[in-house]
Structure formats: structure tokens, C-alpha cells
Write a sequence for this structure.
């Protein structure tokens, strides 16, 4: 899922300085799963903001809503009937959702309530870890299902570098060396001959480096 | 009516303060003795999160507290209640109530963050 | 001759070669480089100039190479793939070759979190393995990776680095093999303190015949003190310093430790000279360049041979 972390409350209050009447929009997708932007989080954030603002002598009116997803036009359109009544929308969906609201409601400032993070998995309740960089040219079949772009801090294709010690990456003792993981997995799968098969230079043009990306499925239009 | 403190979530607790509570006491079963297995453990985690939020927005984290006792400890309940009420009296009304009463002790926006 | 560099000639002639390292300054003052160069001159077959080592910003390796070249020392440029994409790398290779630099060491580079700019973008467009392949393609085929012809192919004696002490051990020789296949001509190892482990690594490399395909230069770093040994062991990833080594220098009183460190380094070089498969030594006397003459001379490696 796409993960994120809440923005500090001071930062959000600063963003809301010019406004007294806003929509606070959550999303039932990824951000619900990683407990940062779902319906519950909308309720808690709304109460927190109301309490903070009232204690400072200036109330704020918040309409709490939660969409199925903020990245599909059908769901976002459900907001249209009331958006004109509000000065801004604070969204705690991922960056894609926050931007989509801005695109669909061009006269309503769209504010980010979270810092969108990465594409990852739930390693355990409360802990999410990055797995995919969306490079557009997947080689997981050659690396035992472990991504060298994401899990190696240097995105090496023939790792590990000399800084790998006891399976730990030189950048942080909490970070496992991606290439140690790959080699262990290839060994377990008896696929060590795959090591070294990544010779051709990576084409980064399929990733965001090539420019903002677009997928068009002719068969679906 | 709540069957168990495990049913309480953060938004419920924050709503109490929005509705004008100066303090909120959460009383659950003794740890290890929850009638519904571990509801009280979840409640404590949620109370702690609300404590942190109240601290961040300078409402006064001491306004929320969780106590654990068994259904039969009537006198303990009374003692806890008195203790908590005294605590709240000492720290005074919630800033929200002060503002609503129009008192001069308005916390500036800067101070509230 | 692939590059015609002095290092290549000395190794081809069968001599035990010597290289050393110069770290450029954290500033634009060329005299600092010239001062270090004075300690190196005459004692080596080539001298490495590091490339923003540990991600700490320093004068560029190419500039450092030009300064030592002016002082009469054969330069060895180091290039990390951390900071430059393939466009910049190709461009710098052409530039370095144009300026007469004939030796190159291809490296990954320490992660930027260790340096002054941990917020910098992480480039790693191609890895060190692919850089070796890139240089070889440009040198031997005279074309850019894009296929276009180069007007004046760069000439480099291509080097790579290995760390026999990093994990997992079982991949270290296969990785060296890949680097050799990619086109490495010589190897400089991370500094060695654990001779037993290094010998194990060497045996595995020899089994693959790698010592015949690539010239292996063993890295050594003289210890200034027991404190330095303990610091490196604790703080530098991939550093293996056995207790016997630390204890041996620690047994000396503080004022005698430096001399002991040099003595231990000389002994180590002499032992490495005797190992089949070792073609030379790379002496990394970081911020202690003034001791190079004593160390290299003490190991019986002076004067350096002159090969036409």
C-alpha cells in the first residue's frame, strides 16, 4: 500500500491559519490500512484541530468526510455538492488523492495533512516497510523476489558493496542489506546463477526520471 | 452504555473535551482481568495517545487518566474519583471552557501549538 | 598495453608494484596537495586521489590528479558512482584521459549519509560493475554505450576495489569475478588486518584463476595508535581488525605505538610480498603520508623500478 505519516499538528495549524471553515477528507484505501488517513483518523484529527483552535480563541468548522478513494473521479465527484460552501479541503489521503482534489475543485485550496511515504507492506501491526520504487522495469524474477532498487540503499545491481556487515546496511543498523537478502534467497532457491544476470545498465527512463508517467490502455478507453 | 473500556476510542475521548469536560476518567478492569480479555489494554494505549495529543495542543494532558480496578472495589473507586476531581480542580477549567466563558486567559494560537 | 600507464608497465614487467593514496583537502588550496605529493614522490608507481571519500566534500579527484601530475607523480583517479550519472561519468572519463590521467579506480562510494550532505540526492545511475564495463567499452571499442563513435578513445588502466572482509563472504570472490569479466585490469583491496581471512579469500580467488586475469594489489593502512585501531574497528563498516593486532599495538606505551604501527605494517607488506597471487601493495597512510618513505623503504621496495 501507499504509506504516510501525519504532518506535525503545528504545521497543519499554520496551513489552516487563513481558514475558519474546511472539509477534512479521509480515504478508505491505503491510508486506512496504515492508520494515517482513514475515517478514525479523520475524527481524531478534526477533534484535535477544533480543540486547538478553540483554545486559541478562534473556532474552526470542520466537515468530516471519508471517501472510498480519493484517486478515482467518481468518488471525488461525491464531494461536489458541498465543496463551494467551504474555504479549503485538508486531505489526509496520499499525495495522489490530495492532488486529485485540487484538480477537481480548482477554486478550493487542497492542503496536505500527511507526508506521503512509500509503496510498502505491513511487516507487523504498526510497522510498514518500503518495497517498491515503481521503476517501471521489474527484475524481481532474477533476484529471488527482492528488489535491488528499493532494498539496496545504493540501488546496486551487483551488490553488496563493501559496507555490508552481518547482513546490515552501512546506512543504518536497523536496515537489512538488500543484497544479503537477495543472495540468501537465491541460495535457498538454488538460483545463484542469477547473480550477475543484471549486467545491462538500468534504464531509468521508465521510472520518474524519464518525466511524470502515464499509462494508457487503449483497450479500455 | 459501554460494555468494556475496549470500546472507547480516541475520538470519543476527544469529543468529551469538545463537549466541555474539564477532565475525563477512564476506569477499566484490572490488567489481566478484563472481562473481554484485553479490552482494557487497548483502552490504555488509546488513553495514552489522547494524553499525547492534549499535551501537543496544550489543553493539559493531566486532564485524562486511566484507572484499573475490579467491579467489587467500591471504596477504591470513590478514592480514585476524589483524587481525580482534586487533580482537575487544581489545574483549573479546560482552556476551552475558559474561552467559552469569555475569560481573559485566552491561550494564543502560538502558545497552543 | 591497454593504457601505457606507468603502473601497467611496472606490473607487466613482473615487479611487485606499490601505490599509495592522497586525500585532497576540504578546500581549494592546491599547496596542501603539493605538500602531500612531496611525501609520495619517488616511492610509488601510481598514486590514488580519492573521490569525496565518506561522502565528505573535498577538492575533486581530477583536480588532485592534475596537481600531483605536475609534481611528477603518476596519478590514479578514483570515481564513485554515488554522485554522478552516466553522462557525467563518461564526460569526466574523457576529460581525465585528455589531461593525461591513465589509471582509474571504479567504486560504488560510501552512502551520502556519512558526509556533510546527507540530504543530497542519491545518484547511483549505474553501479561500479557497470562503470568498469563502460570504461572498457569506451577504451577498447572506441564507442559510447549509446553506440556512437568516440573521437579519441580514452585510455585507462582500469581498477576496481574489493573488500574481502565484508559480508557475505561467499559472494566476495564471485563479485570479483564479475568485475574481472566486466573488464577490470587491477584490483586494490580494502586495508587488511586479518591476514588469515585475507589468505582464505585469496585462495578462493586463485581457484577461479583470477590472480592471473587481474593484478591484485593488497591494501594496508599503518596504525598510528591502539585508539585508531579501536576506532576503525567500531566505526568503519567492513573493517576487520583481529584482537591480536589491536593487543600488539596496545601493549606498547602510547608514545611508542606509532613506531610499532609502522613496524607491523612493514612486516605485513613483507608477508604479502611472499604470497603467490599478490602483484603489489596499496599503502593507505591516511593523513600520515610523511611515513610512506619509511614504510615502503622499510619493506625493501625502494627505489621504484623505472620501466620504459
Amino acid at each position: 500500500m501507499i504509506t504516510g505519516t501525519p504532518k506535525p499538528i503545528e504545521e497543519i495549524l499554520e496551513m489552516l491559519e487563513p481558514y475558519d471553515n474546511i472539509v477534512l477528507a479521509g480515504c478508505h484505501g491505503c491510508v486506512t490500512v496504515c492508520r494515517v488517513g482513514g475515517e478514525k483518523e479523520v475524527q481524531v484529527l478534526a477533534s484535535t484541530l477544533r480543540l486547538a483552535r478553540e483554545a486559541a480563541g478562534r473556532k474552526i468548522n470542520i466537515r468530516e468526510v471519508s471517501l472510498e478513494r480519493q484517486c478515482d473521479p467518481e468518488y471525488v465527484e461525491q464531494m461536489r455538492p458541498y465543496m463551494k460552501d467551504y474555504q479549503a479541503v485538508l486531505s489526509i489521503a496520499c499525495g495522489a488523492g490530495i492532488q486529485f482534489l485540487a484538480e477537481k475543485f480548482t477554486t478550493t485550496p487542497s492542503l496536505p495533512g500527511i507526508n506521503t511515504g512509500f509503496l510498502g507492506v505491513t511487516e507487523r501491526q504498526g510497522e510498514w516497510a518500503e518495497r517498491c520504487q515503481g521503476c517501471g522495469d521489474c527484475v524481481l524474477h532474477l533476484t529471488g523476489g527482492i528488489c535491488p532498487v528499493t532494498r539496496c540503499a545504493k540501488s546496486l545491481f551487483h551488490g553488496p558493496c563493501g559496507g555490508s556487515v552481518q547482513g546490515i546496511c552501512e546506512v543504518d543498523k536497523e536496515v537489512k542489506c538488500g543484497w544479503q537478502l537477495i543472495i540468501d534467497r537465491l541460495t535457498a532457491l538454488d538460483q545463484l546463477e542469477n547473480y550477475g544476470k543484471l549486467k545491462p545498465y538500468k534504464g531509468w527512463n521508465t521510472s520518474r526520471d524519464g518525466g511524470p508517467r502515464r499509462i494508457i490502455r487503449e483497450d479500455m478507453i | 452504555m459501554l460494555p468494556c473500556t475496549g470500546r472507547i476510542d480516541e475520538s470519543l475521548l476527544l469529543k468529551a473535551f469538545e463537549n466541555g469536560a474539564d477532565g475525563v476518567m477512564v476506569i477499566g478492569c484490572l490488567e489481566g482481568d478484563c472481562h473481554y480479555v484485553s479490552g482494557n489494554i487497548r483502552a490504555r494505549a488509546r488513553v495514552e495517545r489522547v494524553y499525547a495529543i492534549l499535551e501537543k495542543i496544550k489543553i493539559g494532558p493531566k486532564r485524562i487518566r486511566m484507572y484499573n480496578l475490579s467491579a467489587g472495589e467500591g471504596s477504591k473507586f470513590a478514592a480514585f474519583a476524589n483524587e481525580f476531581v482534586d487533580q482537575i480542580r487544581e489545574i483549573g477549567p479546560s482552556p476551552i471552557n475558559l474561552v467559552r466563558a469569555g475569560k481573559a486567559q485566552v491561550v494564543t494560537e502560538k502558545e497552543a501549538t | 598495453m591497454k593504457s601505457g600507464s606507468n603502473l601497467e608497465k611496472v606490473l607487466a614487467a613482473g615487479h611487485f608494484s606499490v601505490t599509495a593514496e592522497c586525500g585532497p583537502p576540504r578546500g581549494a588550496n592546491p599547496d596542501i596537495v603539493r605538500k602531500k605529493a612531496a611525501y609520495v614522490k619517488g616511492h610509488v608507481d601510481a598514486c590514488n586521489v580519492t573521490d569525496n571519500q565518506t561522502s565528505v566534500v573535498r577538492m575533486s579527484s581530477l583536480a588532485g590528479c592534475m596537481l600531483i601530475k605536475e609534481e611528477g607523480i603518476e596519478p590514479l583517479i578514483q570515481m564513485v558512482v554515488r554522485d554522478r550519472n552516466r553522462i557525467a561519468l563518461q564526460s569526466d572519463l574523457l576529460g581525465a584521459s585528455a589531461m593525461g590521467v591513465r589509471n582509474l579506480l571504479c567504486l560504488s562510494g560510501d552512502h551520502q549519509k556519512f558526509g556533510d550532505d546527507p540530504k543530497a540526492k542519491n545518484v547511483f545511475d549505474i553501479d561500479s560493475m557497470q562503470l568498469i564495463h563502460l570504461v572498457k567499452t569506451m577504451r577498447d571499442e572506441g564507442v559510447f554505450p549509446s553506440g556512437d563513435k568516440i573521437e579519441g578513445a580514452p585510455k585507462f588502466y582500469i581498477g576496481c576495489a574489493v573488500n574481502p572482509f565484508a559480508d557475505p563472504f561467499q559472494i566476495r570472490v564471485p563479485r570479483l569475478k564479475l568485475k574481472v569479466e566486466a573488464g577490470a585490469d587491477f584490483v586494490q583491496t580494502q586495508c587488511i588486518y586479518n591476514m588469515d581471512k585475507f589468505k582464505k579469500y585469496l585462495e578462493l580467488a586463485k581457484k577461479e584463476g583470477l590472480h592471473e586475469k587481474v593484478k591484485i594489489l593488497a591494501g594496508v593502512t599503518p596504525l598510528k595508535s591502539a585508539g585508531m585501531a579501536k576506532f576503525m574497528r567500531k566505526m568503519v563498516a567492513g573493517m576487520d581488525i583481529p584482537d591480536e593486532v589491536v593487543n600488539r599495538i596496545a601493549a606498547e606505551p602510547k608514545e611508542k605505538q606509532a613506531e610499532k604501527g609502522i613496524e607491523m605494517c612493514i612486516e605485513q607488506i613483507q608477508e604479502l610480498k611472499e604470497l603467490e597471487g599478490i602483484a603489489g601493495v596499496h599503502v593507505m597512510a591516511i593523513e600520515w603520508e610523511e611515513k610512506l618513505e619509511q614504510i615502503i623503504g622499510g619493506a625493501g621496495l625502494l627505489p621504484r623500478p623505472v620501466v620504459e
In short: Residues 5-100 of chain B form one domain.
